Each structure stands twice: as structure tokens, then as C-alpha cells.
Amino acid sequence: MHGFTDAETDKEHVVLTMGDINDPAPLLARIHSECLTGDGLFSLRCDCGPQLQAAMHKIGVAGRGVIFYLRQEGRGIGLLNKIKAYHLQDQGADTVEANEQLGFGADMRDYSILKPMLEHLNIKALKLLTNNPRKVKALQDMGINVVERIPHQTGRNPHNAKYLETKAGKLGHLFNSEDDE
User: Which residues bind GTP (predicted)?
Assistant: First the structure.
């Protein structure tokens, strides 16, 4: 476990590593934004907890890899605003509409903290577990070689179907219903 502090936001982030990360072969990796409700409280409203668990399992099976756990709750709007967004969703708004009604963008996450993390760990190439093309682009813009985007679809249930449709339709996440684990 490696800890990092973002000097601009004073947020603390964690990188979990397994196996020999100094091997130049691309590392299996997951960039995961904090989700207390999904990761810790097992909410069915999102797919975050199952995605984190599946990433840990895949890295364990591979024997080496890295998870960047970023403190960007609620796509960067924070826990209390996320709770407000949940209330708006209960009234019919989708996740993007709820964020926008609160005065935020659809996705406020910033991946710039990854650069010092990757440099510190001397990571140059990744096989990225993600459905989010913004994460791939952010890494490529930092000069990281994303040799493969591995679909990472898990956790679909009747309570998060609209949420997942919104992620695909409004945020550009790449889903294939046949890829569900």
C-alpha cells in the first residue's frame, strides 16, 4: 500500500500493488474512485463495490497488478453532495441530471494525481480494467502506454439498471450486455 497526498486538494489517495510491479511487462490496473456507499456499504444503486472486488480478484489471479484508489466520491462532488444527488434520483433524475441540478458537471473527477503516483512507482504501461474511455485518455495524455482496455463490467442488478444506462448514454462508458460477469 502506497499513500499519496494531492497538494492542491489535500486529499489522500492510496495505491494498492501486488507482485513485482518493477517488471516492465504491462501491469493489470484499475483506477477506482472512492465510493463509500458502494465499496463499504454495499449499495445496489451503483456497480462500484463489485467493480473494486472484481479488480482485486483479477489482479490476485494474475499475481501482479495495481489499484489506484482515488478519493473522488460521487464523481468528484463529495459524499454529502452525493447523498443530495441520491434524493434527486429518488425523485426521477438520473445520476447526471442530479449532479447538474446541484450545480456540478456530470463528472468532476480529475485524474492528474495519477501522474506522480505512476512516476513514483515507475509504471509506464498498463492493461486497464475500465469501461470509461476518459480514464484511458487521461493516462495516454500523461504518456502512459495503455496497451489494452479490458472491459470491466460487473455488478448489474435491477436497482442500478438506469444508472448503468446513464453511464453509457450520457458519459460514454463502453458496455456490452454480453460481457456481464
Answer: 30-34, 51, 73-75, 95, 130, 135
Is residue 156 part of the annotated active site? The answer reads no
Q: How far is CA 59 from CA 52, 94, 96, 141, 156, in A?
A: 11, 32, 31, 25, 21
Q: Which residues contact 149 (CB under 8 A, 6 or more apart)?
A: 128, 130, 133, 136, 174
- Options 39, 109, 156, 180, the catalytic residue: 109
In the annotated binding site for GTP, the residues are: 30-34, 51, 73-75, 95, 130, 135
Residue 103: partners with Cβ closer than 8 Å, 6 or more residues away:
none
What is the pTM for the complete model shown? 0.90
Residue 94 known to be catalytic? no
Q: Which cell numbers hold the place of 23?
A: 517488471
Please enumerate, by residue number, every residue annotated as part of a binding site for Zn(2+).
Answer: 35, 46, 48
**Which residues are part of a known binding site?**
30-35, 46, 48, 51, 73-75, 95, 130, 135
Read off the pLDDT band of 92 (50, 70, 90): very high
